[in-house]
């Protein structure tokens, strides 16, 4: 891989678009990206239908989607349950959003790593993902595929599917192994969070519906604050190292 990186980095910029077009159709990563874009289009189309049919529900779903992208599945699911959205929508929506993130961000990261595609707007995000993946790489490598599955499933910050699939890439796993392992761990984590959050809400609601709402919001705040704090500490740690 290192040799491939060096060769790609020395290639003139004018040749990159042509190589990228060929890579999209012939490489595994290219097909993954096209699949992710098709799924994203279908999901956006579904949201558009919701906007026309049920604007109130559309607002809830958009909020839940944004929470998932920005702060992860736990915050998104807690947000959905706090708005009385049931299992039948909360769990599938989180699965779809996480799948779209993996199928789009993973190949874009690989293309950027191979210097086939330079996206300045995403460079900082890719750098952060790369550093996080490198930090956890040895732990995952020790246990192989099982370690990767557990890493994605474990409910800690920056152990999500995007970082997980980048770790799999850095470990040299083929796409047809990496993506299914990461998504399987992700789906199991979503199911576990769904079971925990719904039972937590129902248990508190048995005493007071208002208390359930307050505690769910408090839980969302804790998750978001933890994610922001983790990101800040990671950035400071990287600055100190550099």
Topology:
Layout: H1 2-9, H2 16-26, H3 28-53, H4 55-71, H5 73-82, H6 87-113, H7 120-153, H8 161-170, H9 175-205, H10 209-241
Helix pairs in contact: 2-3, 3-4, 3-6, 4-5, 4-6, 5-6, 5-9, 5-10, 6-8, 6-9, 7-8, 7-9, 8-9, 9-10
Beta-strand percentage?
under 5%
Total of domains: 1
Number of strands: 0
Tell me the helix content.
over 70%
- Overall spatial form: globular
**Cα separation of the termini:** 25 Å
Structural class: mainly alpha
Q: How would a textbook summarize the main sheet? A: none
Number of separate helices: 10
Order of helices and strands: HHHHHHHHHH
**Residue windows where pLDDT falls under 50 for at least 5 positions:** 1-10
Whole-number mean pLDDT: 83
Spatial extent as radius of gyration: 19 Å
Features:
disordered N terminus, single chain, 86% helix, 242 residues, globular, mainly alpha
Protein architecture, described:
This protein has 242 residues and is an all-alpha fold. It has one domain (2-241). The protein is 86% helix and 0% strand. It is built from ten helices and no strands. Helix 7 (120-153) packs across helix 8 (161-170). Mean pLDDT is 83; it is low at 1-10.
Can you describe this structure in just a few lines?
This protein is mainly α. The protein is built from 10 helices and no strands.
